[in-house]
Amino acid sequence: MNLLGFTRQNFAVVFEQMNVPKWRAGQVWDWIYRKSATSFDEMSNVPAEMRAELQGNHSIAYPAVDRVLTSSDGTEKFLLQLSDGESVEMVLIPERDRCTVCVSSQIGCGVKCSFCHTGTQPFVRNLEAHEIVGQVMVARQRLSDPGALNSKRLITNIVMMGMGEPLHNYENVSSAIKIMMDSDGLAFSRRRITLSTSGVVPFIVRCGTELCVNLAVSLHAPNDEIRNKIMPINNMYNVRELINACRQYPNTNEARRITFEYVMLRDVNDSEQQAIELAALIRDIPAKVNLIPWNPWPGAPFKTSSNSQIDRFAQALARTGVTVITRTPRGQDILAACGQLKSSSLSK
Fold first, then answer.
1. Which residue in the list 99, 207, 246, 338 is annotated as catalytic?
2. What would the mean pLDDT of 318-344 be, rounded to a whole number?
3. Catalytic residue among 76, 89, 128, 261
4. Active site residue 89
5. pLDDT of residue 135
6. pTM assigned to the model
């Protein structure tokens, strides 16, 4: 079993079964997360007999990097090979004052949003917790990031916005995020972790209660008529149910707002009237709206809204008092932007 996916509680159980002191478990934990050890042989202060027992029953295995594509804007897309031969994509997004890792939670996606490239790939399986944490470890390794022990930490943000719907894999995603937030683990503040969902209503409040990370909701339409056409999940959890769940998300306030993601599709959801409808829908929720120019992919039936139309939509929102941000696409030339990930895209 790969120790990379064990929460602190489950990690302790492993060492209890080995009848070794708790502080020995702490040493191994420290080697894995603070010193980025990938072999038990590296753990010089752990007894050889204990290392041999660990080696016989456990591993510390990162996903294997099959290929890396680098965008003209510096964004990097990784095709990662998993132990069963399946593959998944992860994206590293460097910026002037921070670096974000965009992490996947599934191979493929069962939500099948019509504007999303990932949705054209059949759903294969959920990622295990160690495969989710492993993506962050690969990014740290790529950057030679010293992690939380050093003030020169390079990775500052983690977004669960890669392949898949995180709330359809809640148990594994939850375990992975707990390791990311552990002060002696990857030591990321919950304010530096964002989970994006297409609207799996039953898990939204649970996520906020148990993890309390930032919530991003892929809304993309102001009403059921449009959302039913482009997001099949709306037939299960409609806009009213989704917005009500957002109202109940714990610890939301003006300093910590929900992000509503809104992909701009020409002549589908980008009119000024639809902007006004969107503003009315979310008016009583501490929120901001991210406008995302649709990122094209081969064979897609959509077109990106014009810059002028996106500006008009943004202005209509702003006039109602909504905080609105128009996102600059990153990694489009390597199919690494929002909605473009698909693990077969690098393997062909």
1. 338
2. 84
3. 89
4. yes
5. 97
6. 0.94
